[in-house]
Every structure is written in C-alpha cells, then in structure tokens.
Amino acid sequence: MSKVFFPKLAKSGMTKNYKLYIPYLLSCIGMIMMLYIICALSYSETVATMAAGRDLAVILRLGVGVICIFGSIFLIYTNSFLIKRRYREFGLYSILGMDRKSIGRVVFWESVIVSFVSLFVGLFLGILFFKFAELFLIKIVEGAVTFSFKISAESVLITIGVFSVIFLIIMLKSLIMVGKARPLELLRTTETGEKPPKANFVLAIIGAGTLAFAYYNAVTIESPLAVLYWFFLDVVLVIIATYILFIAGSVALCKLLKKNKNYYYKKQHFVSVSTMAYRMKRNGAGLASICILATMVLVMISSSASLYFGENYALRARYPMDVEFSLRFPTFDGLLTDAPEKIDNIMEDIIKSENYKPAEVKTYKSAMITGLLDGDTLVPINYFSDSMDDFRAVYIIGLDDYNAYQDEKYELKDNEIILGTFRCNYKGDSLNIAGLDLKIKERSKSFDVFGDSVAIIVPTFYVVVKDLAVLKPIGDIKDADGANVLYSEYYYGYNYDERFSKEESIEFFHKIKDKFVHNDYITENEYIIRPSTIEEERSDFNTLYGGLFFVGIMLSIVFIFAAAVIIYYKQICEGYEDKARFSIMKKVGMTGRNIKKSINSQVLTVFFAPLLMAGMHLAFAFPVVWKLLQLFGLTTLWVVVVITLIAFVIYGIFYAIIYKGTAGAYYNIVSNE
Asked: Alpha helix (H) ranges present in 434-501?
C-alpha cells in the first residue's frame, strides 16, 4: 500500500467533513494565536518598562496559565464531538476491510495535519496581530507607544511545546476511542441515543442543595479575607451543581412537559420534547458547559471592567490628597510633643522656597493598632493569626482633627469615642482597646480621612477620641518581640492648584520630597517617611487595572468563541441525529413550516436556560465579587452594579446572535437544505 494512501485518506475525510473540521481548526488556531500573543506580551520589553510593568507581566502570565488549562480541556472536549460524528465513517472503513491499525493510521494523520496547520497558521496570526494587541494594551494602560517589532522566541517555543502536548493527548484519546469500538458499534453509534439518567429527581435535589449552599455562603461572608478562602470552593460547588441540575433537572423538565397534555400534544412541541428526553444526558452536559463559560465571561469581564472604569474612584479613595507625607514616630510619645508643629513649619518653608502656595492643606495626627477582637475587647497582636474573622486593624484620630477634616462638630468626653467600621460590623456599646475602656457615643460612616486604610485587606475600625493623649496608657505596651503595639503617625497632605500638568506636578513633588526627606530635623529623629503623589501612583493603577481589563477582554473572547463552538457542534450533531426523524415526519404530513416551529420550540426550550442560570450565578456571586474588588481599593458600589448589568446585556446580545446562527444550521440539516 502506498505511503501516501493514509495521508490522502485522512485529507479526504477532513475535506468531506469540513462542517465539523473548520470550527475545530479555527478553535485550535484561535487558542494558539491567543496563547502566543499573551505570552509574548508577558516577555515584551515595552511591558517591562511600564510603571508596575512587573505586576502586569505577572497578570499576563496568569492569563497564559488560564489559556493553557482551558485550551487543553476545551479542545479535548470538542474533539470528542468530532470523533463521535466520524464513527459511522470509520465503521464503513472497517466493513470494507480496514483493520483497527489502519483506521488508527488515518486518525493519526488527521491529528498530524490538524496539528501542523493549527500551529503554523496560529503562530503566523499571533505574530501578525501581536503588535495590534500590544498597542491596544498600551492604549488601555496609557503607556508610551513604541514602534519596534520583535518575534518572541520564548513565546514561540512555549506555544509549540504546550500545544504539541495537547495535540498528542487528543490523538491518543482519539485512537483509544476508535480502537475500543467494534465495526457494528461504529456504524450504529450516530443512530443510538442516550438513555435518560436514572434517579434524576434525587440528583436534582442534591444539585439544588449544593447550589443553595454555595449561594448562601456567597451572600453571608462579610470579611474580604474570608472570601479569599471560600471563593474557589464556592466556584467548584457551583460547577458541580450546574452539571447535576442540567443533566438531572432537564430530564425532569421533559417528563413534566410530557405530562402536560395541552403543551405536549402539539405539532411544534411533540417531536422536540421527545427528542430532548431521548438524549438529554449529553444535552444537559453541553448546556452546563455553556452556562459555566457564560458565568466565567460575565464574572471576569464585569470585575475587570469595574476596576478599569472605577479606577479614579479607587485612586482618590486611596489618596484623598494630591500629595501626602506620612511620618511614623519611633515612640507614641513623639506624637504628643511639638514635633507635628515643627514638621508643619518645615513643609511650609520648603514649599515657600519653591514659590508655591498649595490650593488646600490638611494635616492630622493618628495612631494605629492591630489585634484580635474577643467580644468587646481588642487584644493587641502585630501579625495575622488563624482567626482571620476576628482580626481587626484600628485607626485612631483626635476629635479636633476629625471635625476639621470631615467638617463636623462632634463633642466627646475623655472616655467616649465615635466608631466607624469598614469591611465588618460591630454592634457593641463599648470597645476595650488593650485595657482602655471606651464608650461608643456616635457611629459614623464619614472616614475619608484614612485613605491609606483602603489598602488594608483586614476588617477595620475607625475610632475618634477626644484627644490622642487618652491613649498614653497603652502607648508603651510591647509585643513578644519588643515592638510597640501602638503606632503613631503624622499626616501632611496638600492639593495642587490648576496650573500644574501631570508631569509638572510629579517633578514638583520630587523637589519637595528630596528637601523634606533630607532635612536635618527629620534625619536626626529617625522619623520613617512615606511620601506619595496621586499622579505618580496613577501610572501604577493604570497599569494594574488596565492590565487586568486587557486580560479579561482577551480571555472573554476565548470563552465566548468556545461557547459558540460548543453550541455549534451541539446543534450540528443533533441536527444529523434528528434528520431521519424529521424526514419521517415530513412523509406523514409535517410541513417545512411545522418543522421550523418544532425546531424553534426545541432550541428555545433549553437554549436560553444556560444564560438564565448564568445570570442567577452572577447575581449570587456579586457579593463575593464586590468584596474581592474592595481588596483592590474599589469602594464605589454603583460603578460595579452598572457595569455588571451592562456586561450581562452585551453578553445576552452575543448569545442571541449565536442562537440565531446555530438554529439556522440545525434547520438546514434536518430539512435537507
């Protein structure tokens, strides 16, 4: 037999089954292209030179990992559709005299052709569109445009290596699937439906219970830190419950529809419901996969877009003033001396020397302590413990500074406080801080003064006391390592006037910072200084949030395309299976119009179920997503709500377009067009 016989036979089989192979090839090419682009961006010199470029590279490499894992699962999953559709053809080869080894050689050459074509075209398109992706990323993160072009050898090798392994696994799986089947089984496979799963009502109850537990957990978790621990468990539970509900629940739905005589015994419903019930086990698994992909897209794009479009809100919450200098004193007593006044004078002299008057200046003295909350008592501790739910960071400020900063007129006695909470609740009437008993007189939500506490991921208390001198009894308490449990700081912040551009404000900030940091009084007293300017930090925020948004867009494109391919294969495979059934119905008097109505009934009955379920997943996941976004400093709830709703509407439009296209392909097959 000629050496080129099997390659030619493989090529011929792929050409004749182009409706199956073109989407599969496009999937492989798209995955390879995306992997190269994101991988090359992670190694890009342009990315490395950006502000927070190292963080952006880490984000991009996480995207590489997601594509590697998802790509392998998705391509193996879609290839199984393709191979099962070819069973009849392979069975015919066997009847005509081919042994299993020869059929295996055909499958081998088909895998080789797909691998080489996909890698060549995918890498070519990846290299071709890499610069467009890089420019798009630069636009999002507001970076500097470069016109250099370089092919990333590391990314080429990584892409070839990853997909060579994936294609090898796919080939071995295909050979095993074909090798195990007997000739007659191969011929009859496409005509054999799947039996409905047994005990579906029991499975449905288990699935509903699992989903209810995951939902309850999502809406009851208060601490963002606890969310980090429970998030992945909830994701796994939701995925398991979704598959159980779609497999078992869809069968139960078909049985209920059959019992409804007014619905079932109609031309447009009779065939569709019977067909769905006959093979619902596989149908349910496909619908569950579509639902999971939809949920992934919605959660990912809504959260990353919320960070990107809510960046200014997060930035201003983190940095209330344009320029900030925070000085930490070696001991708590330093805060009670005339040091704050001297620091004010130093800053005023430095600013005047630059012939500049800030538009606004704000200062305050504060203290901070961390510990475990035991009832109404805070036990000082300087490190995270296993009891994360009980860990609290406590920021304390004097009444005069608080009233001036927040424009309030509160009055307090020595043992009275005003309490605010962030990422937690506290219902007690008093608070004991390291043995200091304080009575809660007022509760307030206005604590914009502590901008840097937004970056703290633990639950936080804001406390206003009459005067910071009341903290003196706990100022000398040491932890086990001999360090003070109570930290004291002085904050000096000012806003620029309108005449400064971004570049000028950063340059001016560095002039003042250099003079302030190297001042003799500051260095002699060993004050720890933390200078920052919002304009300089904006670049890091742009890079971090923009990078997350870019990766979210790229991965969403991958997931949407994957969902479309799964839906397409589902419709194509079921179309060929239903072709004979609808042909019989036409012979007994069913018109083309009735067939179309039956198709619409079948598709609409279950097609939009994944979208509705994904919407429900998104609604219950929203509290978790919101708490995770708070860890990134985003505290503006309405931004997240609006963007999440917009994301769902846009995805719903894409979903409807996919439905329209695949329903047409299904109709063309069953109606012999």
From this structure: 472-475
